[in-house]
Specification:
The protein has about 375 residues and is an alpha/beta fold. The protein has 2 domains: about 325 residues, HypD, alpha/beta domain 2 (Rossmann fold), CATH 3.40.50.11740; about 45 residues, no CATH class. The strands form 3 sheets. Strands 2-1-7-8-9 form a 5-stranded parallel beta sheet. α12 links the parallel β8 and β9. The protein is globular and about 65 Å long.
Amino acid sequence: MNRTATDWLKALHELGIRERVRIMNVCGGHERSISVAGLRSALPDNIELVPGPGCPVCICPEEDVFEAIQLALHEDIILVAFGDMLRVPVNVPRREPRSLEQARAVGADIRPIASPMDAVRIAIGNPQRKVVFFAAGFETTTAPVAAMLAEGVPDNLFVLLSGRLTWPAVAMLLDSEAPGFDGLIAPGHVSTVMGPEEWQFVVDKHRIPAAIAGFRADTLLAAMVSVLRQWQSGRVFLDNCYPEVVRPGGNPEARQQLERVMQVVDANWRGVGVIPASGFSLRAEYSVHDARREFPRYADDSRKRVGEMPPGCDCARVVLGKIYPNQCRLYGHACVPRKPIGPCMVSDEGACRIWWSAGHRDNRWVREPDHAARAVG
C-alpha cells in the first residue's frame, strides 16, 4: 500500500526528534514544491529545510550573460535562450542594457525557446543568418543540448555553452569548514539522467544522511523521514525515494551523448567562484559549433572582476544555503520579481522568486546573516 503525504508527515512527527536538524534540498523544483505545499510550516520547529544550489539561472556566470548580450547587440545574429535567462541582470551602467530582455528592447534579435529543437528549427528557417544558442543549465538541460549536437545541426547554429554539474557544488560545501546542513535531499531529475551513484560520496566520504526525492509532497516527505531516521540512528546510506524514474546508472543514452560531445572542466559559478570539475565544454570534434570560437572577441574575463552580484545582493549566500531568501538585504524592497536585482529573484527555480511567489513578503535581514533564523510558513 502506497503511503500518502499525510502518512509520511505523521511518521516524521512520530520520530520525536528534539535536536535542531538542517536538511538541504538541491533542486529548484524541490524548493518550489516545498514552498507551494507549505511543508515548512507543517514540520516541527527544530527541523529546517535549507534551499541550496539548485538554480542554474542563479549561478550562470555574469561574464557569460554579458557575452550573450554583447553578441546579440553587435553581431547580425539571432540569439536564442531558455526564457528565464532573458531577465538575468548584469552589472553595467544604467544607460546600457543589463539583460537580454533589455537588449531585445533596443533592437537585438533575441528569442526565448523551450527546447534545443526550437534552436534547430530557427536555424533551419533562417539559413542566411547565424543563430547562437545560449545554453545555460544543469545536467538535465545540458544532456539534450549534447544530443542535439550529436545528431547533427545546421552549419549556421552555434552554442554558447554555460552548462554545470550539480554535485560538485555540494561537494564544495561539504569540504568546507561549515557545510551548514546535516542531511541532504538529492535532486530526482539529475539522478534520473546521471544515476543515483553520483551522490554516494555524501554518505561514503562525509557520513551525511542522503535521500533522492521527486517533486510530489509524498516523495519529498518520504526523503525527509529517511534522512531523519538515518540521522537519528547513525546508520547513513543513500536512499532512493523516487524509484519510479531513478534507476541505477541513470539514463545510459543521455550519459553517452554527454560523454561524446562534452568534457568536464573547472567552471565559474556566479557569486561562488571556480569549482573544480563542475562545468561542461564542447569537445574539439564539435568546436565548429562553438560560439566562442566563432565570435572570440566577446569573451571578456575582466567581467569576473566587475563584481559577481550587484551591490547589496546576497544571492550567493542564498545559493549556498548560508541564509534564507528573506534574509537578503534587498529582498522585497529593492528586489522583487517585476524588477529583479539579483538572479535568485528571476527564475522560477530561484529561491527568492519561489519564496516571494509563495507569499513570504517579510524581510528578516539580520546583522549576522550566516546565522539563519527559522523561516515562517
